[in-house]
UniProtKB/TrEMBL annotation:
Family matches, as NCBIfam families: PRK09283.1 (NF006762)
Name under which the protein is recorded: Delta-aminolevulinic acid dehydratase
PROSITE patterns: D_ALA_DEHYDRATASE
Keywords per UniProt: Allosteric enzyme, Chlorophyll biosynthesis, Chloroplast, Heme biosynthesis, Lyase, Magnesium, Metal-binding, Plastid, Porphyrin biosynthesis, Transit peptide
Upper lineage: Eukaryota, Viridiplantae, Streptophyta, Embryophyta, Tracheophyta
Catalytic reaction equation(s): 2 5-aminolevulinate = porphobilinogen + 2 H2O + H(+)
GO term, biological process aspect, one: chlorophyll biosynthetic process
Similarity comment: Belongs to the ALAD family.
Pathway(s) it belongs to: Porphyrin-containing compound metabolism; protoporphyrin-IX biosynthesis; coproporphyrinogen-III from 5-aminolevulinate: step 1/4
Pro residues biased stretches: 84-93
CDD domains: ALAD_PBGS_aspartate_rich (cd04823)
Species of origin: Parasponia andersonii
E.C. number(s) listed in UniProt: 4.2.1.24
Length: 432
């Protein structure tokens, strides 16, 4: 009990860092009286275990301790001798030359709520946790992990070894969701991308292995033909260059079912074909996979921020671009059209991609749908922060955490980010 009471006094008087000058106009007794009352009620009437707040040991606030033991404090209060307020400390000196001005006649000073770490923590509106992260991982058939040039710290991981180790590391710091991206050998690519639904292909095989090792790992998969397409497009390409919608959706349904059969928890169509969410939902349900979720890439833009990813998977389109299916970066309202479609077709999660340059779109979806929203901090965003850090132009660690927090503030529930492991380590207080 004694230690609890000490803690409370410390919290009231020092950890919060209250500054006497902020209390001008209030009875100076108010604060100490309140804290001593709470001591009395707590020790007498309420001996049950209580919420414990750890007081800072290193405070240097203006309050001096009174030098009384807890028992002496209590006895003094019971006897009606409420201690005096500590003396108001002298006003700290301002540098020579500071102008002497009348106090501004303002009744709202927002800085009051920002004046100490405890107050800032109390009023923080958004939080960031490893539970919010989905870790995208590149896999290949090889045994070795191969570094990806434009994404320092990221590798094409060997599906049997490197991958399993990376997943274990992520789980150690609270990241229990991953999304898999396969690097498929050229020999297995074709115009119709049929390798995408090979039950013994790299992705289904990897899912089975991971589910065997980590049954509670949440596995997201990518549903799109580009890693399997000899044309490097997300769909089947007609001879005149048109990406065929409904035929592609047929393939995507087979791909999603193969992934679900292997044990995927969330299939994630990133292809931007029309009608694919509804078709995939129906295909999954027809095979008994009612429990498998769909995270739809609802607002996926034709962005130049995907460059490093396409290098990682060697999945650059062999000709043209992806503008007939991915959205125009100039468009905002169009994201609502996609949102309505995906919601009505049964999507469980709506994704916006890229992330940081598209915060307005994340907020738009957040305000217009009750569904969970995901944001994808894509390869180019990752590469820019890494490059800025290597060149010592920015503080990589801080910019990383701020960028992730901002995605949350804009309205994202989960964030797909190559920083998942590094950020989670940082949030857990582990040094790199
Ligand atoms: C393709 C896909 C892409 C990304 C995820 N899935 C690339 C593209 O659309 O060309 C990009 C992710 C990133 O850049 O990090 N279906």
């Amino acid at each position: 009990m004694a230690s609890t009471t000490t803690t409370i006094i410390n919290v009231a008087a020092s950890n919060v860092g209250l500054d006497c000058q902020s209390y001008v106009g209030l009875r100076p007794m108010l604060l100490p009286v309140r804290s001593f009352r709470s001591v009395r009620t707590s020790t007498r009437a309420n001996p049950a275990p209580r919420f414990v707040v750890r007081a800072s040991e290193t405070h240097s606030g203006p309050f001096k301790k009174l030098g009384l033991s807890d028992a002496e404090c209590e006895a003094a209060v019971v006897a009606g001798n409420v201690p005096e307020a500590p003396p108001v400390p002298p006003k700290p000196a301002a540098p020579a030359g500071t102008p002497v001005v009348p106090t501004l006649p303002i009744n709202r000073r927002p800085r009051r709520n920002r004046r100490s770490p405890a107050l800032r923590a109390a009023f923080q509106e958004t939080t960031l946790s490893p539970a919010n992260f989905v870790y995208p991982l590149f896999i290949h058939e090889g045994e070795e992990d191969a570094p990806i040039g434009a994404m320092p710290g990221c590798y094409r991981l060997g599906w049997r070894h490197g991958l399993v180790q990376e997943v274990a590391k992520a789980r150690d710091v609270g990241v229990n969701s991953i999304v898999l991206f396969p690097k498929v050998p050229d020999g297995l690519k074709s115009p119709t991308g049929d390798e995408a639904y090979n039950d013994n292909g790299l992705v289904p095989r990897t899912i089975r292995l991971l589910k065997d090792k980590f049954p509670d790992l949440v596995i997201y998969t990518d549903v799109a033909l580009d890693p399997y397409s000899s044309d490097g497009h997300d769909g089947i390409v007609r001879e005149d260059g048109v990406i065929m919608n409904d035929e592609t959706v047929h393939q995507l349904c087979k791909q999603a079912v193969a992934q679900a059969r292997a044990g995927a928890d969330v299939v994630s169509p990133s292809d931007m074909m029309d009608g694919r969410v509804g078709a995939i939902r129906a295909a999954l349900d027809a095979e008994g996979f009612h429990h498998v979720s769909i995270m739809s890439y609802t607002a996926k833009y034709a962005s130049s921020f995907y460059g490093p990813f396409r290098e990682a998977l060697d999945s650059n389109p062999r000709f043209g671009d992806k503008k007939t299916y991915q959205m125009n970066p100039a468009n905002y309202r169009e994201a609502l059209v996609e949102t309505r479609e995906d919601e009505s077709e049964g999507a469980d999660i709506l994704l916006v991609k890229p992330g940081l340059p598209y915060l307005d779109i994340i907020r738009l979806l957040r305000d217009n749908s009750p569904l969970p929203i995901a944001a994808y901090q894509v390869s180019g965003e990752y590469a820019m922060i890494k490059a800025g850090g290597v060149l010592k132009m920015i503080d990589e660690e801080k910019v990383m955490l701020e960028s992730l927090l901002c995605l949350r503030r804009a309205g994202a529930d989960v964030i797909l980010t190559y920083f998942a492991l590094q950020a989670a380590k940082s949030l857990c207080g582990e040094r790199k």
